[in-house]
Amino acid sequence: MFIDIYLTSLPADVDRDDIEDELQEVDGFDVVGAGVGEDFVNLDVEVDDAVPRELALTTVAEILRRLGSHAGAHLRVSDTGEHIEVGDIA
Length: 90
Description:
With 90 residues, the chain is of the alpha+beta class. Helix content is 26%, strand content 31%.
């Protein structure tokens, strides 16, 4: 499964590399791409099939919350194509 993370704001003391580093440290997660748009930053994450979908979503949300990067963030998930607001993930 792939999870594309779209961030619309980052705290002054956090950048995209900080989030990428946190994700890379999680077993089964591999950041395979990143980019910058006009009003967002994105990270493309490949998640091993052995990682349950809900655990993958929760892990991403927890990292973003811990780093204060969750406001306005959303995920696009490849297995369903849906867009999920990070704030909607428990």
